[in-house]
Amino acid sequence: MRTVLLAAAAGLLLAGCGGGEVSTSGKDVSMATVTDANAEQACIDLFGKANDLGAKFSEADFTWTGSQYVSGGVVCALTPVGKTLNQAPVTLRTTNVVDEGTVSAGNGWYVAYRPDTKGAWSDEQKQAVADLAAKAAKHIKP
Q1: 39-47 helix and 123-137 helix, angle to the nearest 10 degrees
Q2: Cα–Cα distance between 129 and 112 in angstroms, integer?
Q3: Per-residue confidence band for 116, with pLDDT thresholds at 50, 70 and 90
Q4: Mean pLDDT of 75-101
Q5: Sequence-ordered list of residues with C-beta below 8 angstroms from that of 90, at least 6 positions apart, any chain
Q6: Buried b vs exposed e over 36-61: b needs ≥16 C-beta within 10 Å?
Q7: In what order do the strands lie in the sheet with 103-104?
Q8: 74 touches 46 (CB < 8 A)
Q9: Are 66 and 75 in contact (CB under 8 A)?
Q10: pLDDT at 27 over 50
């Protein structure tokens, strides 16, 4: 009986957690060194494992699709594996231009984000994206 109760409690915790807390890799990324060739790695370094944030949006597996941004930063789309870029539920980007949804890195750089799917984000999704942007901003270097 005790084993059954523990298993049930663990199942409820996992089902209701929405993937847990999102976090970065803790690595600093210099915007001066971002290119299309290393943009995907820059996304991983700044925003951590794609599945951590992806779990807030669905049970699919996710990957970061990265590209160099025109201002010299990086664009990171949270893309479901096997899907197209336009099916990404969120895009985060680094920019040196103040933008809507922007979190300052304190050094002239910012993290901007917006929903990429039709429909509104839940409060939990909004909070997860905002938290991740704030954490990543600390690792953006000029």
Answers
A1: 110
A2: 10
A3: low
A4: 88
A5: 53, 57, 77, 78, 113, 114, 115, 116, 121, 125, 129
A6: eeebbbbbbbbbbbbebbbbbbeeee
A7: 62-68, 74-80, 90-95, 110-115, 103-104
A8: yes
A9: yes
A10: yes
The per-residue pLDDT for range 124-141, each reduced to its tens digit, is 998 999 999 999 999 999
Distance CA 110, CA 20 (A): 25
List, as one string, the DSSP characters of 21-83.
--------EEGGG--TTTHHHHHHHHH--HHHHHTTT-SS-EEEEEEE-TTSSEEEEEEETTS
**Locate tokens 């997860």: which residue?**
128
Query: Which residue in this structure is represented by tokens 């910012």?
Result: 110
Tokens of 103: 């979190």
